[in-house]
Inverse folding.
């Protein structure tokens, strides 16, 4: 068998092993590890989507100083 | 009206069964390295149907060993083990930050480079999390997000996945897994690290073949 054929054969075997493991292991576990981890536990979220955070409204932001009826009433009490 | 108009379609996110399984394993590893798993997660890892013998021998063997350990260990025992392996008193006995393995210290230049790349990809640090982005759990979580396409409507292409893996994981994750396996107080986590090592090896080989 030529080197090229050997290499192609090895690649095909590695890909097949990988596919067999990935599909076999997830099907062969109780309740499927995928469902348990992906649905409720993951993501760990050490990192997050930057754009999602960027559009998040800042609800806690102060409106700054502004005159209200209460403040005007206070000013009235301080007039000499 | 212009001759060509961009029309936006809602493209369904297409993830193959294999890639979904890869993402799930990255999610599992991210979870296991970030905290001690609870009993529900442990039970989900118990094998009820033996994987086919045609799969990679070492990978299957390490998965069987982890699964068997998950069937008998309890969450409380793992909380203690996690603390003694990854937290400790003062300096953690086993460090799971990439910067340490690449530069000899934590919070070094490799972390800055990782942050740059994460920012370019659209990731930012979650303010609720203490750990820096080069934590083993974090980089596994990034791989999961790339495979599933968390940042867009489609999974990241294989070249982008490979680039992240080769630049920010491959140079140090094997050393980290080895350190966990040789630490005397590792028991369950020795099996986690053994499986992680085999899984990363499988990923590395697959990237070499596909790209």
């Amino acid at each position: 068998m030529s080197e090229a054929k050997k290499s192609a054969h090895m690649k095909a075997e590695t890909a097949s092993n990988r596919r067999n493991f990935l599909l076999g292991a997830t099907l062969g576990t109780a309740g499927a590890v995928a469902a348990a981890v992906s649905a409720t536990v993951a993501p760990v979220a050490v990192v997050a989507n930057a754009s999602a955070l960027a559009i998040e409204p800042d609800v806690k932001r102060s409106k700054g100083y502004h005159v209200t009826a209460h403040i005007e009433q206070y000013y009235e009490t301080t007039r000499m | 009206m212009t001759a060509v108009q961009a029309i936006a379609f809602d493209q369904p996110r297409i993830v193959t069964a294999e890639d979904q399984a890869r993402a799930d394993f990255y999610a599992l590893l991210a979870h296991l390295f970030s905290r001690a798993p609870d009993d529900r997660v442990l039970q989900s890892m118990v094998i009820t149907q033996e994987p086919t013998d045609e799969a990679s021998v070492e990978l299957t063997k390490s998965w069987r060993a982890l699964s068997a350990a998950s069937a008998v260990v309890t969450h409380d025992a793992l909380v203690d083990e996690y603390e003694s392996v990854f937290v400790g008193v003062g300096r953690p006995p086993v460090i799971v930050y990439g910067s340490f393995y690449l530069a000899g210290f934590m919070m070094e230049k490799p972390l800055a480079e990782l942050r740059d790349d994460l920012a370019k990809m659209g990731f930012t640090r979650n303010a609720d999390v203490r750990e820096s982005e080069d934590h083993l759990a974090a980089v596994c979580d990034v791989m999961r997000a790339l495979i599933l396409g968390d940042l867009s409507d489609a999974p990241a292409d294989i070249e982008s996945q490979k680039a992240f893996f080769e630049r920010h994981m491959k140079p140090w994750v094997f050393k980290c897994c080895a350190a966990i396996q040789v630490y005397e107080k590792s028991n369950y986590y020795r099996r986690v690290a053994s499986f992680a090592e085999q899984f990363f090896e499988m990923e590395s080989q697959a990237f070499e073949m596909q790209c």
Chain A touches chain B at residues 11, 14-38, 41-51, 53 (CB under 8 Å). The mean pLDDT of chain A is 64.
